[in-house]
Amino acid sequence: MRCPFCKGDDTKVTDSRATDDGNAIRRRRECLKCGRRFTTYEMVEEVPLIVIKKNGSRELFDRSKILNGLLRACNKRMVTRQQLEEIVNRVEREIRNSLVQEVSSVHIGELVLNELKHVDEVAYIRFASVYRQFADLDSFMAELKRLMGSDKKKA
């Protein structure tokens, strides 16, 4: 690691610990040339994930888009921000663990719906109505019946 002060190449690590969120390692270093100390952070470099939209266009995966959609679907519902963050984390983890570099927005939506169904059924229907773009009342009712049918199977 190059010293930011004297540009010397020879440094030693004096302290190393995980950051509060656990996503990086914080290292205190000392330059052996000038003696000054500085901090560096080491984190995993993730491969960019590309989302293929319904119209065929491609864009970088943005977890905030999923979270914003969930926030709208859960407006005035008893769902915490922490629960929504956990849903987004599970969806992103599942996509990244599949080791694909491109994923369809349809697949992401299905993963979100599957997670949301277990948290809040009203929010599930709200999210599904936007995501699946129900064309008419019949398609909306079919989704409600499907949800109600899966509830009866649980009981």
TrEMBL record:
GO terms for molecular function: ATP binding; DNA binding; zinc ion binding. It comes from the Bacteria. Its cofactor is Zn(2+). GO terms for biological process: negative regulation of DNA-templated transcription. Binds 1 zinc ion. Keywords: ATP-binding, DNA-binding, Metal-binding, Nucleotide-binding, Repressor, Transcription, Transcription regulation, Zinc, Zinc-finger. InterPro entries: ATP-cone_dom, NrdR-like_N, RNR_NrdR-like. The keyword Transferase does not apply. A zinc finger (unnamed) spans 3-34. Residues 49-139 form the ATP-cone domain. Negatively regulates transcription of bacterial ribonucleotide reductase nrd genes and operons by binding to NrdR-boxes. NCBIfam families: transcriptional regulator NrdR. Belongs to the NrdR family. This is Transcriptional repressor NrdR. The lineage of its organism: Bacteria, Bacillati, Bacillota, Negativicutes, Veillonellales. The gene is nrdR.
